[in-house]
Amino acid sequence: MKNLCCKNKVLIALLISVISLACGTSEKKSAGEKIIEKSIEASGGENYVNAEIDFTFRNRRYKSKRNGDIFRLERIVKDSTGNTTHDVLDNEGLKRLVNSKAVTVPDSMVTRISDGVNSVHYFVQVPYVLNSPAANKELLGEDEVEGDAYYEVKVTFREEGGGTDFEDEFLYWIHKENFTVDYLAYRFYTNDGGIRFRKAVNPRVVGGIRFVDYQNYKTDELSTPLRDLDSLYEAGKLEFFSDIQTENISVSINKNN
Length: 257
What we know:
Layout: H1 4-7, H2 10-17, H3 31-43, E1 51-57, E2 60-67, E3 70-78, E4 84-90, E5 93-98, E6 101-103, H4 107-124, E7 135-145, E8 148-157, E9 169-175, E10 181-188, E11 194-206, E12 209-219, H5 229-234, E13 239-244, E14 247-253
Antiparallel strand pairs: 1-2, 1-14, 2-3, 3-4, 4-5, 5-6, 7-8, 8-9, 9-10, 10-11, 11-12, 12-13
């Protein structure tokens, strides 16, 4: 791959990692942007900015570290033969180490590996990641899900800075009182495309940051508007797809920066 930062989700990771909640702008913010900001504040706020987060997902260890505009995302996998593969995604791009020795990643694999690392960190750190400069945030309206009132905020990404999957669409149901992201849905176009709806479960706060697991659902009707998914879920018309559990979470906040 000729240009890592412009051709995959690595750039999304870079952009979301340099955001500071104190960096304000004189531009008028949309209703969607304001709601996202309140959600970020309710879920950890400035604790994200210089956080070191360590967790396990599907028997793989993940670590992220931020220090201002410097970021590092990691995935550590130990296979059945005892070999350890350590992928590191940072401001300079992707690096892979096998048993602590650097190896060359074929160009054909760079995007796939980078996306795999970034996507896990992305969903673990919702809603903070939604403050990406490449993200368009639009308040579509309000709705009620399982007895609670929610804002429905649509998030899309601009082509410039939006990564290879910039056409993907996301919808977040943000609680009107406590501003938590309790449900989300997204439409993706890779691998023949698909739609997912996730319900956040098992919320807990670690090191001042809110984390959740997800119940993951799908529909094979790819023309379904994302805004209809909450009603389909309540009607039992979505197919359960998987449990998404983040385990062994630890957080360290570097307060010296």
